[in-house]
Amino acid sequence: MTATSLTYFAIAAAQGAFKNVTVSERTAQAFADGSWILAIVYIVVALGGLAALVTLSGLVLIYVERKLAAHFQCRLGPMRVGWHGIFQTVADAVKLLLKEDVIPEKADKAMHLLAPFLSMMATVMVLGVLPYSPILQITDINIGVLFVTAVSGFGVMGILLGGWSSNNKWSMVGAMRAGAQIISYEISATLALLVVVLFSGSLSLAEIVQSQDAGWWIWRANGVGFVSFIIFVIAVTAEINRTPFDIPEGESELAAGFHTEYSGLRFSFFFLAEFINMFVVSGMTATLFLGGWMPFHIGAWAGFNGFMDLIPPVLWFTGKTSVVIFLIMWFRWTFPRLRVDQLMYLEWKVLLPIGFVNLFAAAVVVLYNLYPFPILVP
Amino acid sequence: MNAVFYIAAAVAAVSTIMVVSRSNAVYSLLYLIVSLLSVALIFFVLGAPFIAALEVIIYAGAIMVLFVFTIMMLNLGPQTAEQERKWLSGRAWAGPSILVAILMAEMLYVLWGGDHQVEGRHIVEPKEVSVALYGPYVMIVELSSMLLLGGLVAAYHLGRRVHGDGKEQQP
């Protein structure tokens, strides 16, 4: 037995041989054992961890976005606050917190106050079911994929309410556009996601990751996986209202879209929700198509695989998510904004038919065990 | 879990009453969403998480968003709310309230173990429904789907705008 395979077994043993243990299971176990303090500590750690994840990833993503945008445009970006401007986002966040919270006089007050929280809530709830690593997942529900679809579909309510309650034409038009766009592109995203569900045979996110032990679905699903990966990335980019699909807040025509009338803390909620959404959909893409926290393996090449297993699963997840995030940011600074009719054309006449045909092809592949392309992994 | 069920049921009942009694259409719809979410919670407590998720996705997520979308687009102002308020007079309440009270009394009677053995009573399981739908009645299912498709095509035809020169307007 070589040294590398020994390390592999040591790590596999340490991780419980990739067996998932979620935080909620630990909490239930602690309750069952009668140690209330441990259970409460688990709950507090889970909540604190989520809060830290939201804050940190928000700060980091906003900084990265500004830096990337600058370098795509041959600028330097923020350079003054801290080393290469790393504290620029913190400074901006403090400025936003200190700003006056303006509510328009003719606005629907209660709804105007509620909308940013609805938007934020829908985003944060998804973070609870994403598997970050075999031992790091808040809870794994057996209908995880459905849950994510349900909750993220609910997030559009925050945007619609925010736009309507502001009592402003631009906000209203922005909210209408956002609503139409999100519920249209949700169909394509769901069709693409169903392909992975077909191949893995489970709706639980942890089990979907486990099913990619022998290879990630993006290539192991023989073509249909790759097509649905592309459809999914396009559809979720539209769902989180990012360029080239950012017509809900098209600055040149709508002031700022649905959040025109928001300021200070409430504006920052919408803004943060948008960036956390980017993290969420990238995490979902990584989980569904790129193997989640699964290390990269090549066939039965034990040496290489053992080396890859040395990298902790949480780093794999972060790395894959970062790649997808970079892809989405790259879109933003490469493609011009679509018109409304182009947007609808793309969804209903291009993506939707391709999605249906792809789903049908995937069903045929799964049913008849057809594998037209050579499989990399046995 | 009983407490969860009762609280969810109470929220569902209260929010459904609010749906009917609000004069602002957007508020009614928001209460309807709360009602649907609490029904989803009831399904979850009863041990059907899949149905609960579908309830949230289909009703709260898709259909209600479309309703809210349409109502917001119509942008009914304060005048409509005033009109609605006038419609909800005491006399308009009376008739439906009496009928609902009768139903309520019947339901309470059945719940409290009254004699609900109607002649030849037989509980129909979902499986039986499915077998019947896709067995002897498969033709009717297919025909009703054709009817729905026909309705869709007719709606498209009615909604289509044609210019004076007979050319169809591109959307």
CA gyration radius of chain B, whole angstroms? 22 Å
The number of distinct structural domains of chain A comes to 1
According to DSSP, the number of beta strands of chain B is 0
N-C termini distance of chain A: 22 Å
Instruction: Bin the helical content of chain A.
Output: 55-70%
- Percent range for helical residues of chain B? over 70%
**Mean pLDDT score of chain A:** 81
What is the number of E strands of chain A? 0
Low-pLDDT runs of 5+ residues of chain A are 1-6, 13-17
Look at the structure and give the CATH class of chain B. Answer: Mainly Alpha
CATH topology of chain B: Four Helix Bundle (Hemerythrin (Met), subunit A)
The helix/strand class of chain B is: mainly alpha
Assembly state (oligomeric)? heterodimer
Tally of helical segments of chain B: 7
Q: Tell me the structural class of chain A.
A: mainly alpha
Approximate shape of chain B: extended
Tell me the Rg of chain A in angstroms: 22 Å
Describe the structure.
The complex is a heterodimer of chains A (378) and B (171). By secondary structure, chain A is mainly α. Chain A starts with a helix and ends in a 10-residue tail after the last helix. Chain A contains 15 helices and no strands. Chain A has one domain (103-367). In chain B, α1 runs antiparallel to α2 (25-45) and α2 packs antiparallel against α3. Chain B is built from seven helices and no strands. Chain B has a single domain, classed as NADH-ubiquinone/plastoquinone oxidoreductase chain 6, subunit NuoJ (Four Helix Bundle (Hemerythrin (Met), subunit A), Up-down Bundle). Chain B has 171 residues and is mainly α. Helix content of chain B is 76%, strand content 0%. Chain B has helices spanning 2-21, 25-45, 49-74, 78-87, 90-111, 126-134, 138-159. The A-B interface holds A 111, 141-143, 146-147, 149-151, 153-154, 156-157, 160-161, 163-164, 172, 175-176, 179-180, 183, 186, 341 and B 26, 30, 33, 49-50, 53-54, 56-57, 60-62, 64-66, 68-69, 72-73, 75, 171.
